Amino acid sequence: MFIPGDALPARPPMSDEKSKVTAIGIGSAGTRIVSLLSKKSLLVDRFAYVSCDSADLAGTDGLGVLVDSPVDQKLTPAMARGLAMRDRVRIKELVEGSKVVFVVAGLGGATGSGIAPYVASVAQESGATTVGVAVMPFEFEKKMRFYAGVSLRHLRAQSRGVVVIDNDTLMRSSPDDSTLPDLYVSANTEAVRSLGALLSAAAEGSVPVGLNKLLGTVIRDGYSLLGVSTSDAPDKAEEGLAGAVVSLSKLAETKTATHAVVILSGDGSLSGQEVGMVVGRLGTMMRNQGVDVEYCVGSHASPQLQVSLLASGFTSTKYDEYDPLDRLLGGRAIDDEMDASFTEGLEALSPCD
Ligand SMILES: Nc1nc2c(ncn2[C@@H]2O[C@H](COP(=O)(O)OP(=O)(O)OP(=O)(O)O)[C@@H](O)[C@H]2O)c(=O)[nH]1
Ligand SMILES: [Mg+2]
Questions:
Q1: Is 228 domain-assigned?
Q2: Cys bridge to 51: 56, 106, 159, 316, which one at CB 3.0-4.6 A?
Q3: Whether 177 and 229 share a structural domain
């Protein structure tokens, strides 16, 4: 059982762990995705979790910080962040000694949106190269867009790069009558397949992208966006790649990307020629001959080919509209974190007449 504010279980000594890669899941979506990721064999050595909800931590296996929060109030992101600030020391312990930290959260709720940028700032301060992984709300969650947009801006400011994964992209293969928990399960499987292939260590039948190349793509001005697709057609490499480009084009103009990583996961029957075709054709499909392409190949049991496409350097994305404040301010900064230390949140104050 997690005790509020405690990091459990006891952290092993970190002195000899300078090259550690840590993944931290925040809030409900973040903890579920990182917990699933921890079951894969990856370049990640340490898995950790932060949430205001003990139910999120109950299913995890690793280091956890339960942020104590009032049970009688609906949290806002600013309140969640203010509460997490009291656990700074324990959060710092989660990232201590890490060279690279991935901070994973679904944005749009209170916990992930509020705490992910804070955890990223603590990780950056500890000297780790910090990468945010932000899962953006479903199309039907319009009310969550504002928090998600503001949090994405904060996460970007506190990280070296942000990988943005759209929940609508991930639920593409779910049947129409899926329940919300079903949608989450299939979205998480899809997210972990792509992230897992990106972060995989060398294994038989795989060509890992390598952490340096991955970070080289992700640490760009702007966001890295993920497009995904599957194919079992005879020309599956071509069809899968085209589908992934279409999926990406729903998030941003593919012709403005500067870097891309293609992630191919198949049953091992993919020929070198097919891989070469994918890498060679990507520029044409993205209407972008200048895009710099890396690739990695992972293996799985199904004959279906899964193609994920991570691209960065976009001049604008669909998420720019989620944060109208940023556009209104035109690059000028305001202190919109100022209510972080009020547990009541600004909306609890009486309006001025
Ligand atoms: N892919 C995926 N998305 C999820 C999952 N759980 C929630 N989401 C989405 O992630 C976004 C944030 O939701 P939560 O993660 O539930 O929010 P939270 O960070 O726990 O914040 P609270 O409001 O305090 O519960 C929303 O768009 C949700 O639809 C999940 O397991 N997988
Ligand atoms: Mg939650």
A1: yes
A2: 56
A3: no
Domain region containing 266: 224-312
Q: Are residues 61 and 106 in the same domain?
A: yes
With contact defined as beta carbons under 8 Å apart, do 229 and 292 qualify? no
pLDDT range class, residue 217, cuts 50, 70, 90: confident
Residue (of 259, 199, 191) closest to 224 by Cα position: 259
* Number of the ligand 1 atom closest to the C-alpha atom of 137: 27
Ligand with minimal distance to 116 CA: 1
Taking the centre of ligand 1 as the mean of its atom positions, its distance from the CA of residue 238, in whole angstroms, is 33
For the purposes of burial, counting CB atoms within 10 Å of the CB of 161, is it exposed (0-12), middle (13-18) or buried (19 or more)? buried
Q: Is the distance from the beta carbon of residue 28 to the nearest atom of ligand 1 less than 6 Å?
A: yes
Cβ 27 vs Cβ 58: under 8 Å? no
The winner for highest mean pLDDT among 82-91, 275-284, 307-316, 339-348 is 82-91
Number of H helices, E strands in the chain: 12, 11
* Domain co-membership, 228 together with 96: no
- Amino acid identity of residue 110, one-letter, is A
Query: Are both 88 and 166 inside the same structural domain?
Result: yes
**144 and 229 inside one domain:** no
- Assess whether the C-beta atom of 144 lies below 6 angstroms from ligand 1: yes
Contact 213, 194 (CB under 8 A): no
Q: Is 187 in the pocket of ligand 1 (CB under 6 A)?
A: yes
Total of domains in the chain? 2
